[in-house]
Design goal:
This protein has about 260 residues and is of the alpha+beta class. It is about 20% helix and about 30% strand. Strands 1, 2, 3, 4, 5, 6, 7, 8, 9, 10, 11 and 12 form a 12-stranded mixed beta sheet that branches.
Length: about 260
């Protein structure tokens, strides 16, 4: 049976892995000068490889199972295709109490000019550094999903960030049920009437499955945790929730409606 161009690229990639010395312990942020000999690939070979094959080639030997890969930039073909980075998403698993956890890896590439092989296929690339980011989402009882959509990173100390998310979810349930709420404040600088129904209505409708990021500010306690939450609607909009905690309980929630995820 004749070998197709796609299958040939997969075989070439597999042979490159077999012949290369693959690092067993690349840590997050490791630079190229700190790495041992690493495989060199064309962008087409990387695009044709499976997520599992890419993980075995580019991550430490004890990496978690990888379920999705994205090659950046997308598009392009053949010898003209560029390679800047590969994003690898690990399979989610139960994490800290009340959360699912997953890791995402970003492997940055740089052109490699001095390889001795003469493989066809255009510019060759070598991994430059690896960044690992922990992602979380509230476990809604439906089990952790098979990919990392709906997951969010925590910037700063992880434990208080997750505690604030947990408290925000409890406050949403209390608002929906007509229960007692912490001190609240609602601001809408866009003039679109997002606060018109009051803070309880905002909290009751909050989509805790649409949290985009959590930031633990490094200020003196009590210090609010910043939680960015997306909204449903015909155009992108966001709530920035500033959650002030005492122990595991939210004592104040200030919410601000914006049309941009940035401050």
């Amino acid at each position: 049976m004749a070998m197709t161009e796609h299958s040939a690229m997969v075989v070439t990639f597999a042979l490159a892995l077999a012949q290369a010395v693959i690092p067993a312990g690349i840590q997050a942020g490791t630079r190229a000068k700190d790495m041992p000999e690493r495989p060199v690939f064309t962008a087409a070979e990387v695009a044709a490889a499976s997520p599992a094959t890419l993980a075995d080639a580019l991550l430490p030997a004890d990496h978690p199972p990888i379920v999705r890969a994205q090659v950046l930039p997308a598009g392009g073909d053949g010898a003209t295709r560029r390679l800047e980075a590969v994003l690898l998403d690990a399979r989610p698993a139960p994490g800290p109490s009340g959360f699912c956890h997953a890791d995402t890896f970003r492997i940055a590439f740089a052109p490699f000019e001095y390889a001795t092989d003469t493989r066809a296929g255009g510019q060759r690339y070598r991994a430059r550094d690896v960044t690992r980011t922990a992602l979380f989402r509230l476990d809604d009882g439906a089990a952790c999903l098979a990919d990392t959509r709906g997951y969010f990173p925590v910037a700063g100390s992880q434990a208080p960030g997750l505690a604030a998310v947990r408290a925000l979810a409890a406050t949403r349930r209390a608002a929906e049920a007509g229960g007692r709420l912490p001190v609240t404040a609602c601001a809408d600088p866009t003039g679109s009437g997002a606060c018109r129904g009051g803070a309880r209505a905002v909290l009751a409708a909050l989509r805790t499955d649409a949290i985009g990021s959590v930031r633990v500010n490094g200020c003196t306690a009590p210090c609010p945790v910043e939680i960015l939450v997306g909204t449903a609607g015909p155009r992108p909009a966001y709530w920035t929730m500033l959650v002030t905690m005492r122990g595991d309980t939210a004592t104040r929630i200030a919410m601000r409606y914006t049309l941009s995820p940035t401050r």
